[in-house]
Amino acid sequence: MTNERWELLEQVSGSAKADILKSLLEAQGINVVLSQEGIGESIYPVAVGPLSEIQIFVPLSQLSDAQKVLIDYNAGIFEDLSYPLSAEDKENGVPNQDQG
After folding, report:
1. Position 80 in a domain
2. 8 Å CB contact between 49 and 97
3. CA 9 to chain centre
4. Is residue 14 part of a domain?
5. Residue 40 is part of which domain span?
6. Would you tell me how many other CB atoms lie within 10 Å of the CB of residue 32?
């Protein structure tokens, strides 16, 4: 692994949103590291307030791409995407999202 510099992309409240953003960014080929201070991930997790804050870091070389993904996420671009079914899905009778 290189000694690339990591930059703060976003700070969110709660691990659910942090995990969603991490997965979305990784699906776009962007490396992600989550960092949390305090007791938010302890045996009794905290989901609100300053103790629930999670920082999302990305490599400096991918910061611009990550910012674009974050803008699209906040604009709702990823909410209603339909994906064509694979041949295997069609064989197994998986309904297309458009078909419900």
Report:
1. no
2. no
3. 11
4. yes
5. 1-62
6. 19
